[in-house]
Specification:
By secondary structure, this protein is an alpha/beta fold. It has four helices and 18 strands. Helices cover 16% and strands 33% of the residues. Bound molecules: fe (ii) ion (FE2).
């Protein structure tokens, strides 16, 4: 009875057309549906981000997928924990269960698999044991637009990350992957998932810190960052490779200071793995290579003082 995947998230922004230009440049497919702006990965039949018009950037809800049997069990766990079910927001399909957690964060869980994603190789590498894997020059010289294959995770703010971890463990059976003291915790699914499909960082209110999109290879992470910087967007952090999750990364700020990450090569935690969660606080930086994070990396731009 566990969350198995992340389906999509929703946030309000002050200008849907500005958002659409950003997500088009980021490499997503965008279209309007019932007054909302929907973003998907090209070739993938699954909403990833649903944007609504609002006075400011604000996370609206996060939607997770599970299986039908688990959904019934999760409902009874929510009942037992005294968590009331609520209605879905307007303009959104009312699939599954909707509730607000102790932070006031609206959450949806429904019976849904991950849609298949494009796995076609785009970049070929010469290696020491195969120096002619690629005939000729790198395909990246063509400067084809980088297009994310799938949304892998969201990192959210919470007033109490430790309490959130306990809640997600008790209700959804999610497991701690790694943590950075009491202010950042990463969770995976015991059914098998990326190192994290959701993580929680400490703030004074819930909110979106960043969303991670898998682009397939580390070269495409770097090329994606170049694509966005060339279009005038502001880099957030990277390129680099994280300690936590082992993935390569490059973060770009959207027009409202949420970060959008291109990533590749993240640790996968299988159901059989005997995963040993660690506390990485002693490292003082979260990259194996690449620069240290900028000073404002962990700011929550949804708190009243930063709006
Ligand atoms: Fe990430």
């Amino acid at each position: 009875m566990t969350i198995r995947n992340i389906q999509h998230f929703s946030m309000s922004v002050p200008d849907l057309e500005v958002a659409r230009a950003f997500y088009d440049d980021f490499g997503l497919e965008t279209f309007y549906r019932d007054g909302t702006l929907v973003c998907r990965c090209f070739g993938r039949d699954q909403d990833q981000i649903i944007l609504t018009q609002g006075p400011r950037k604000r996370l609206t809800y996060v939607s997770f997928g599970t299986d039908a049997d688990s959904l019934a069990q999760i409902k009874s766990r929510l009942d037992k924990a005294g968590v009331a079910l609520v209605d879905a927001p307007e303009n959104v399909r009312a699939d599954g269960l909707w509730f607000r957690d102790f932070d006031g964060m609206l959450t949806n869980i429904k019976a849904a698999d991950e849609a298949p994603w494009d796995t076609a190789p785009r970049v070929t590498f010469n290696t020491l044991d195969n120096r002619q894997a690629r005939r000729g020059r790198t395909e990246l010289l063509d400067e084809k637009p980088i297009k994310p294959r799938r949304m892998g995770h969201v990192v959210l703010f919470s007033t109490d990350p430790n309490r959130k971890v306990a809640f997600y463990n008790e209700i959804f059976d999610m497991r701690l992957s790694d943590r950075v003291a009491a202010f950042l915790s990463f969770l995976h699914s015991p059914a098998g998932s990326d190192h994290h499909i959701v993580a929680f960082g400490k703030s004074t209110t819930y909110g979106l810190h960043h969303v991670g999109f898998d682009v397939g290879t580390s070269d495409e992470v770097g090329a994606g960052a170049r694509q966005m910087v060339n279009k005038g967007y502001i880099p957030g952090w990277g390129p680099g490779r994280h300690f936590v999750g082992s993935n390569t990364f490059a973060y770009i700020r959207d027009p409202w200071n949420s970060m959008h990450e291109y990533f590749a090569d993240m640790d996968y935690i299988s159901p059989e793995a005997n995963w040993d969660a660690q506390d990485w606080v002693h490292l003082g930086t979260r990259s194996i290579w690449g620069e240290s994070e900028p000073l404002d990396f962990a700011k929550n731009f949804e708190t009243p003082e930063l709006r």
